[in-house]
Design brief:
single chain, 78 residues, alpha+beta, two-stranded antiparallel sheet, 4 strands, globular
């Protein structure tokens, strides 16, 4: 899924932002994998995303260490 506001392929869990209707990136993916995305880093550099998206927020559940770990845990047979 492409987020048209920052032009980056994002993993998304929900669509829409309150009052916006646009697609939302998975916050967990941004916190775990966002630093590995040139597009996300550019979006942060140009002020299109706040740098806080690269860190888990207080009270979040434990996150997988990588996108691949999450896929394997949820779909072990591919």
């Amino acid at each position: 899924m492409w987020d048209t506001r920052i032009r980056v392929p994002l993993v998304r869990l929900s669509s829409g932002e309150p009052g916006d209707g646009g697609d939302l990136a998975c916050a967990g993916w941004l916190a775990v994998e966002g630093i590995n995305s040139v597009e996300v880093c550019l979006a942060i550099s140009f002020g299109r995303l706040p740098d806080r998206v690269l860190e888990p927020r207080p009270g979040w559940p434990a996150l997988f260490g990588s996108f691949e770990e999450m896929v394997e845990a949820n779909w072990p047979n591919g």
